[in-house]
Amino acid sequence: MSGWGTHWWLIAPVFLGACVSPRALQEGEGAPGGAVCLPVSGAEFVDSGEAIRREMLQLVRGARSSILIDSFLLNDGPRSREILDALAAKAKAGVAVHIIGDGASRYVREPEAFELLDSRGVATAEFNPVKGWRLFIPSHILERDHRKFWIIDGRTVFLGGANLSDSSLVDAAQGGNRDLMVRVESRAAARYLTESFARTWEESVAEVPFRFIPSPPTDWEPGGVEFCFYNQENVRGRASPTKAMFDGLFAAARESVWLIEPYTFTNAEILDQIRGMTQRGVEVNLVLSTQARAPRFRYASYYGIRDLIKAGARVWVYDSEVSPLHYKCALVDDRIAFVGSANLNHRSYHLSRELSVVFDDPASVGEVKKVVESVKEGCREVDLREARRYRSVPFATWWLIMQTAG
Questions:
Q1: pLDDT tens across 230-279, in order?
Q2: What phi and psi, each to the nearest 5 degrees, are found at residue 355?
Q3: Contacts (Cβ under 8 Å, ≥6 apart) of 38
Q4: Whether 379 contacts 289, CB under 8 Å
Q5: CB–CB of 331/362 below 8 Å?
Q6: Phi-psi region of 260 (alpha: psi -120 to 50; beta: other; left: phi over 0)
Q7: CA–CA distance, 131 with 148 (Å, rounded to integer)
Q8: Regions of the chain where pLDDT drops below 70
C-alpha cells in the first residue's frame, strides 16, 4: 500500500490534517479547502481520442444499475452521438442514467445534447444556464462546472480532462485533443462523488429530481492504494482545493516538475508559486500548445511565457500541426503526479468547479511519466527572445480577458 500516512509531506506544507481517511469521511468529517484521500484499486489510464471513446462506450454498455456523468461539455457530434445513443438505450432498459452538463455546452461549435437526451428519456441537468437573472450577477455567470467524471454502478469512477464532446473523442492524428482520463474501482470514491453529484444536480436546472441512493462505503479496496481527490465544488468558499493541490505538489518538489498545462494564464499568484520552486533549485518545466480550439487560448497562454522564463521556468511548446494539447497533469520528481480537470490559471483556482486526483503509487505515477515523455518528443523550448514577441496588444488583451473568461 502506498498511503498518505507515509507521504503526509505532500499536503502538510499547505495545511495539517487536510487528508481525510475513508473512516473519517463515513463519520461526516470534512477537509475544507483540501483533499479527501480514498482507497482505489485497478487504476487504468486512458490516453486521448479513440481510446477514450472506446472506454466510455465500454463503461456505458457494461453498466447494470446506474450511470452518473458530470461533463463540462455535453455535445452532440458524430463521435459523441454513438455514446449518447448507448446512454439512451441503457435508460430505456431500466438503468438509472443521470447526466449533468454545464451551460457552456450551448456556446461551442457542436450542438448541445440536452434536448436530444431529454427526448429519449435520459435525465439531464444543465448547470448554471447562461440566461435569465444569472446574466446580471457576475459571481453566478462566471461560475462553471468544469469537472469531468463518471460513476458506474456505484463502484467504477472515471475522471480527467475529457468532455462528452467530439473534440475529446476524435483521434489526435485527426485533430482531436490529447487528453487523459483515469479509471479506478472504489466504492468509497464512488459514494463521495455521488454525494457531490447529487448536490450539483439540485443546484442545476433539471426536469426530474435526483433520487439515486449511493452504495455504502467500504474501508478499503482489495489490493488498493490511496488517491487524494481535490473536488472543488464550492467556489465561493475561502479555500481553493485546486490551489491547495498545486501548493502541495510544488512544496513537495525537490528536483524537477513537469506541468502539462496548456491553458496556463499567468498572474502574480502563479508566478510566485513558480518562482518559489526555482529559487530553491527545482527545475520547473511548463508545456504549452501550438494548437488550440480557439486562438484566444494560445494568445492568453503565450503572453505569459516571458514572465515564466523570468521566474526561472523552462517553457516548452508542443508543436503538433493538428492536435491541441488538452492534458491537465503534472509529474513531480518522478514520484508524485496529478491528473484531472484543473488548469493552471485564475479560473481553475477560484471560479470553476474542478476535480483532480493526486497519487504517489509508483505504477500510476509511471503512467503519467509515459504521457510526459511522449509529449516531450514533440516539444521545442521557447527562449526569451521569442517570448518577447508575444507581448503585443492582441496577446495582452486576451490574457486579460481570459483571467476570468478562460
A1: 999 988 877 899 999 999 999 999 999 999 999 999 999 999 999 999 99
A2: -140, 120
A3: 22, 25, 186, 188, 189, 192, 226, 227, 228, 229
A4: no
A5: no
A6: beta
A7: 23
A8: 1-33, 134-135, 139, 217-220
